[in-house]
Design a protein that fits this description.
Elements (H helix, E strand, L loop, with lengths): L4 E4 L2 E4 L4 H9 L4 E4 L12 H10 L3 E4 L9 H13 L4 E4 L4 H13 L4 H10 L8 H9 L2
Helix pairs in contact: 1-2, 3-4, 4-5, 4-6
Amino acid sequence: MSDFRTLSADYSVAPQISFEDVVEAKAAGFAMIVNNRPDGEEPDAPQGDDIAGAAAAEGLAYAAIPIGHAGFSHPQLDALDAVLAGATGPVLAYCRSGTRSTHLWALTRARAGDDVDAICEAAANAGYDLSGLRPMLDALAGER
């Protein structure tokens, strides 16, 4: 059973997805899947090419923006901005728990000038705590 968590009208996150989840994502109206896990992070989990193939079979776009132990960088934020700008419908992003996907979205939204309190509230409603990321969100929002 899928665990898709809505952060905005056009972006949801999930813990590691399965092939069945890709089918459910298509049925739920998603247009694209974004993988935020580096290949090999968990060898028993479906790897990027596996999910990419399942997405293609369902007619879903696929993008990989891996986030490893080094954390987040502006190129990753730029990549998500580009993916969202080119998406033809709602996006489902996933990682091991959904946390990295949530953090990446929050950072891009703060950098774009969205209200940081609203970003944190959306994440909390989906079960993700952004309190540790709050200083970075405020800094990105202040750079505008």
